[in-house]
Design brief:
Radius of gyration: 16 Å
Structural class: alpha/beta
Number of helices: 8
Strand content: 15-25%
Largest sheet: 8 strands, parallel, barrel
Strand order of the largest sheet: 1-2-3-4-5-6-7-8
Order of helices and strands: EHEHEHEHEEHHEHEH
Length: 220
């Protein structure tokens, strides 16, 4: 069964970011997930524009840039100029007055447009944008911090999105508290990819290649 695995780089060892990127790349990660927070939309700061720019230059693998910032349209060009064609940019619809304008800027720059849906965001409130985006990042925890508890009602939201994805032409990705049990349950249902953090990938005292191989060999 084919599913994508993305490394949540806010969980990486920043004492040697070059080594982290190189070992994840060699270990078979599909893409690098970059969480950028402004301390306003979410009550935390995470990665920066410079972190994103460094990783973009250190790997040929795609980047998934998750903008947890207020009014992303005001500074979207800062990010787009340092990304490559085919990289993904997610915005939170609640963070922008006119999110479709921001999504069109992402499309026009040759990037893949995506939206991130918080646990408290209903599918109904983003229905129109589902026809614009190519990726929907479903947050199974409230955004802003790693290592949070899974909110079980998110599963019903994913079920609803799965019933719509073929008609509206988007893929679904899981972000937050991602253990093997979530991959075993939702990959067969049609969730395309999973963001891996401290639960399965980082801080495990094993090589990334071994860990990623174990995940890809899960018994479905």
């Amino acid at each position: 069964m084919r599913f994508d695995l993305m490394a949540s780089m806010m969980c990486a060892n920043y004492g040697n970011l070059e080594k982290e990127v190189r070992e994840l790349d060699a270990g078979g990660i599909d893409s690098f997930h970059i969480d950028i927070m402004d301390g306003r939309y979410v009550p935390n700061f995470a990665m920066s524009l410079n972190d994103m720019r460094y990783i973009a230059g250190a790997t040929e693998k795609p980047l998934d840039v998750h903008l947890m910032i207020e009014h992303p349209n005001n500074r979207i060009d800062l990010f787009l100029r340092h990304l490559r064609k085919g990289d993904t940019v997610y915005i939170h619809p609640e963070a922008e007055y006119h999110p479709s304008t921001t999504l069109l800027s992402i499309i026009q720059a040759g990037m893949v447009p995506g939206i991130a849906i918080n646990p408290g965001t209903s599918v109904e409130t983003v229905m129109e944008m589902l026809r614009i985006v190519k990726k929907v990042l479903v947050m199974s925890v409230n955004p802003g911090n790693a290592g949070q508890m899974y909110l079980p009602y998110v599963g019903k939201k994913i079920t609803k999105l799965l019933s719509m994805k073929e008609d509206m032409d988007f893929e679904i990705y899981w972000d937050g508290a991602c253990g093997a049990d979530k991959i075993l349950e939702y990959a067969p249902k049609g969730v395309r990819g999973f963001v891996l953090g401290t639960t399965l990938l980082f801080g495990q005292n094993r090589s990334y290649g071994e860990l990623l191989q174990d995940i890809r060999q899960l018994k479905f």
